[in-house]
Amino acid sequence: MYENYTIILSHSVSTVLIMALCSKRRCGIIFVMNPLNVDPTDMKIMIADYMEKGYLENIIDMFKHDEGMYVYVGDLIKDERLIVRIGVSALIDTLKEEDSEHISKAIPSILPLLKDANPVVRSDAAYFLGMIGHREVLSLLRETANDKDENVRVIVKEAIEEIEAKLTLLNPPLTKGRPGGVQE
Fold it and tell me: What CA–CA distance (Å, rounded) separates 90 from 165?
């Protein structure tokens, strides 16, 4: 009956990792393990390596099952491999829809990147903050709007506009008159 499902019963990173590896094969196995002490450096290397190998769906599952994984987003953005940075874009785009209640947990790892020495990292950080679209990052993005790099300034401006547009859709301005803005 459950042969087409992977069932997970755990809160540990190690179990989520095993689940993600099995999800392509639909193992249908319940893993219950004690948490392993995984070195954060090893974890971020493993995530980046898996991203490079194209295991994006597995990484998405890992993030959805363990919100603690969001601390690695900033490190993934700084990865030197272009395919990993592109994967971060797909990861955030997917998780903002499929894990919207936790996506904001990536923000603390992204914010320091707005001041990174590398303008590509600064612009990527602004872009991803715009994708996530939370109001609390607007003031920090506005501080970055005068970046010395023109490309960073453009992307920061677009990120601010994207967040403001999202906020306007969520909280449209009140109109006078009858419902729908029709004046009498």
Answer: 21
